[in-house]
Structures are given as structure tokens and as C-alpha cells.
Amino acid sequence: MNSDQHILVTGGAGYIGAHTVVELLSAGYKVTVVDTLERSEYRMIEGIESITGIRVDFHKIDCLDFVALDTLFAANDFSAVIHFAAYKSVNESVVKPLEYYNNNLGSLLSVLEVMKKHHVQDIIFSSSCTVYGQPDQIQVDESAPFKTAESPYGSTKQLCEHILKDVATDGFRVISLRYFNPIGAHPSAMIGELPIGVPNNLVPYVTQTAAGVRDKLTVFGNDYNTLDGSCVRDFIHVSDVASAHVKAIDYLNQQQKGNLFDAYNLGTGQGVSVLQLVKKFIEVTGVKLPYTIGSRRPGDVEKVYADPSKINKAFGWSTTYDLGQSLIHAWQWEKKIRNLKGI
Ligand code: UFG
Asked: Which CATH class, in words, describes the domain spanning 202-232+270-306+322-338?
């Protein structure tokens, strides 16, 4: 049991945050969640409580609000922070770059300031494979350089990593987890992804189409240099992403005190094309999924998937769900939130 350790999770009502809170509570950690609920819903907190049977210590706090964070830190003895709170839409970041820089950089700086003031050293940061831009190596490892980011959102993730690397010399111990494509939902269907408006991401679009909310899926391009012409990605179950955060905390606990910055890819290591995913969804759910081939989406990388050997070795972590299970869980969640029965 790790009940003597108290973890602050920012953005803990969000998609990956909520799944991570479930894994932390299940591993015996004490958890406090802060979230603005600006882009998430309180029902995620209720879902966490239903799964774990544990009441969540939740505070509606914006990480930009240093005073509110300061008060929270003064009242609690946090041993580490997992920082998810950020805006994450690639498209929106192109339209509202200033909001993305303000929110994503500002909230990290505020969290680091309050941690420093209260002598909390350990932080796990929610990064993205977008930091690599279009990497030279398709199966990318952590030594790949940061190329020009594809969007202001991508730039914020690169800049946050630069900030974290710099502050690591100032008493922090940092682990940055570079997510590939998290998909799926908790196997209980109590928590999952809640996209705002028309989804940009593939799997929510697939499940909404299967549910009849969208007419058809458009596959963005079938003329790429890939096995079937569609883009290739590394789709990873969100609960596997979540469990890696618990392993990261465990890992920090085993290290000597002292400065640390390390970044890890968080993916399966398997490249899957968009069309392969679509066919897999139809196969495992038995549901109709109308789709058409459209033109390429600007800014899309042709193919990228993780070399996860660094995280596999360091944390003793590996994935437990395959693509079919991830898609079944995504579909069960979609059916639950739409009240669909019998399909
Ligand atoms: N796609 C479609 N149709 C859709 C939606 C997506 O064909 O309706 C395709 C995309 O063109 C892409 C693939 O499905 O080839 C995956 O697209 P997503 O939008 O689901 O994911 P991305 O790989 O574009 O983006 C993800 C994260 C970002 C992160 C990026 C880094 O969502 O946060 O990886 O590469 F920045």
C-alpha cells in the first residue's frame, strides 16, 4: 500500500487524468484532483468513485490560479504532482495560439512555482509524440530530435519539456511521458472520452458514426506510402497509458534523491493504419461503420509509432490491452453515454 503518499492530479477529470486517478487509487495512493471542468465533466469524478468505491477529493481549481494552488498545498502534504491540465486540440491551437501558450505554459509554470514553494520535487508531465514533429525514424525513440512542431499545441508540449529540463537542475525530479494515440475507455464503461463538438480524433469519430451521431467517417487519405495508403499510428489503450503513470511514481520512489529529468515514449510499439483500425472495429463489434475516402488532412504525419523499449525496461511496464479490446471498450463507452442498447 502507498497510502502514505499523496498525489496531486491536475486535470484529473479529463480523459487520461481520470483513468490515471483510477489506477492510482487502486494501487493504494491517496489522490487529490484539481480540474476547471471547462473541458471535462463532473460525471468523470463520479465514474472514478463508482469504479474504485473511493470518494475523490476534488477541487474546482484552475492551475493558473497560484493563490488557490498555494492554499491547497498548504493544507495537504503532497509527495508528487501528475500534471495533465492543458488544452489539447491541435486544430483549435492553430486558431487560438495565444490561448494555448497562455494556458499550457502558464499552468505548468504556476504548478512548478507552488511545488517549489512547498518543497515538492516530483512531477510527471503529460507530453506527446507531437514533440518529434515528422521524425526521421518511423519507429521513433527518445533520442530523436525535436523537429518543427506541426501546431502551436505541439510547440507548447516542446516548450514545456524545455522548461522542465531546465528546472530539473533546480531541485525537481521530472518524468515526461510522450503519449502516442490513447484510445478506448475503462473496461467498466464508467469513464471514457467526452469529445467537445465534432471529434477531431479518429476513434471518437468512429464510435459516434457507429452510434448514428455522424453519417459517415472520412478516412483522410489513402495515397500515403504505407501498406494500404492510409496513415499509420500507435494506438494505445487509455488504461495502459494510465498505469504507466503509476509506474512512473513508483520508479521515482525507488530513485536516490537528486535532480532528474527523463522522457519516455508511451506507446505499444505497433504501427496500425487508419483502415486497419476501421476494419478491426467492424470485426470486433459487428456494427456497421459507413466510411469514405477523403483527401489528406493538412499537418498529418504519414506514419509514426513508438519504440517503447526505454519505458518497458525502466518501469517494468508493458501494455495489457490489444487493439480489438481497446475498440470494444471505446464502443461500450459510446453506447453507455448514448443510452444505446441492443446494437
Ligand atoms: N483520421 C481520419 N478521419 C478522422 C479523424 C482522423 O482519417 O475523422 C486519421 C488522421 O488523418 C490520422 C489518424 O486518423 O491519420 C489519427 O488521427 P487523430 O486525430 O486521432 O490523431 P493524431 O495522430 O492526428 O493526433 C494525435 C493526438 C494529438 C497529438 C498527435 C501527435 O490526438 O494530440 O497525435 O502526432 F498531437
From this structure: alpha beta
